[in-house]
Amino acid sequence: MMRFTTLIKNPADWMTGEGADNAIVLTSRIRLARNLRGESFPGWAKKEERRHALEVMRPAVEGLSVMKDAFSQELDDLTSVQKQVLVERHLISREHAARGEGSAAVIERRQSIALMLNEEDHLRMQAIRPGMSLRGAFESLSAIDDELENALELAFDHELGYLTTCPTNLGTGLRASAMLHLPALVLSDQIGQVLQAVNKIGLAVRGLYGEGTESLGNLFQISNQSTLGESEETILRRLERVISQVATHERNARDKLLEDDPAMVSDKIGRAYGVLRHAWIIDSKEALTHLSLLRLGGDLGFLPQDTVKTCDALLMDIQPAHLQLHSGRKMTPEERDSIRAEIVRGRLQSLEAPDIRSTRKKDESDPDPEIL
Amino acid sequence: MDCDICGKHAKVHLTQLVGGQIKKITLCDDCAKEKGVTDPTGFALAEMLLGKTPGKVVPAAPAVAGSGRKCPTCGFTLEDLRRIRRFGCADCYNTFRDDVNQMLRGMHKGPKHCGKVPAGMMELHERTQRLEELRGKLDQAITSENYEEAAGLRDEIRQIEIRAAAAKQTTDDSLP
């Protein structure tokens, strides 16, 4: 089995991979909730019952074909920083990290598939992919689900579907979500309207790290709310349609911003570049805000296209637990702000200043009629 | 204003957003205490369980807090559900099925699963669904006094049940 340091040494496949419409949709994620028949749910189970459920599940999960040479660890055996790194990589949930004895994580070596054992449900399995690929993620996870069904007796009801600890997950147990980068909709003040419309059709919109967290870096997560009464196919189709519409709105808003106010866009991207290249102290929030604008600059052609990838890797690497893992010790928030700035400066060292030709070109091709 | 339950002078006025709609409930001191309206969030869940709507308050169902009904598998009660908002085990759904059905109203797109089924349960699932569909049609045929169709449907239901019983017997016999 793989060690923690080996697992985390490389960025996850979905952090570096190229996906469809990667400029706006960062990642697609599918989660399935499953439970064992005849065993108390983890939150209600006594310690020995939790251990028993884990003993039943763990060999089946470790035996999955996709989990060859995977990382498999009880959470009690990890330090709090290690657990937090897994949370920051979206490989386990905050709730799972907080669980006591009898909880474990089994993570595929490329970090695209992660299974939480004894989280809120006995099994929470997740597939994550770069770009817009909900269907691909679902298919890979569903195959794993089929494989597990042969090895475990899962709780299923002919009316209510897969039985889950919380009734909000009944039925398919499916939570499908995509992480979207929507800076232009935020800059043009259209974001509220768009998110309200998404919410109205029964989809949830959340900030970067799931439920109850604020949106940072113009990143928004859109997911289905209802899990019972419609098929996986219907849920995915609706989500795909809505995400594609939101991405189109964002694309249009980017075009319009460039057309209406290129100086403002150049200024924002230029300032973000300036701060990130030259700051010596930077907190998480400020870093995320500027990285979002730099990412936008990469997509709009102000900066090289691979700036998008550099920013995505930084989004992960500048988070508190990643910073502490990087430096090998616990740090105060002030120390983290310095190290964060150092890492950002280092990564952006060879990045040349934004090319604002697009602004100049517009000025040249569209001269002020007053002057003529 | 009068209490929605007993009609006495009401002192407790609750306004909550349920499924996007504003719902108001007025209660007297005694009824408020009896319903445990000390924790508004806990009360919202009780309200869902009872399927109560303003002006149409139903008396406390026997299943609610204090009745002592327990899940035989894990010992979970509806009191526990009010407290932790999660179930104790998969069998709780059977134990509290009526309450669950009321609770699910408005929570999901529909009341019935129409997604993936574990491969090993597919046959049973399809049979259960077919029987349910036929029983629905049978009820309709009887209501509309279409006895010929009803007889046909009843025969079909019997056939399926006999085949299912035979299959079960074979499985049981093959068990050690």
From TrEMBL, chain A:
The keyword ATP-binding applies. The gene is mcsB. InterPro entries: Arg_Kinase, ATP-guanido_PTrfase, ATP-guanido_PTrfase_AS, ATP-guanido_PTrfase_cat, Gln_synth/guanido_kin_cat_dom. Its EC number is 2.7.14.1. A motif (RDXXRA motif of the pArg binding pocket involved in allosteric regulation) lies at residues 336-341. ATP binds at residues 27-31, 90, 124, 175-179, 206-211. It holds the Pfam family ATP-gua_Ptrans. Residues 350-372 are annotated as: Disordered. This is Protein-arginine kinase.
From TrEMBL, chain B:
Gene3D superfamilies: UVR domain (4.10.860.10). It comes from the Bacteria. The lineage of its organism: Bacteria, Pseudomonadati, Verrucomicrobiota, Verrucomicrobiia, Verrucomicrobiales. The keyword Ion transport does not apply. This is UvrB/UvrC motif-containing protein. InterPro entries: UVR_dom, UVR_dom_sf, YacH. Pfam families: UVR. Residues 128-163 form the UVR domain. The keyword DNA damage applies. Keywords: DNA damage, SOS response. It comes from Luteolibacter soli. SUPFAM superfamilies: C-terminal UvrC-binding domain of UvrB.
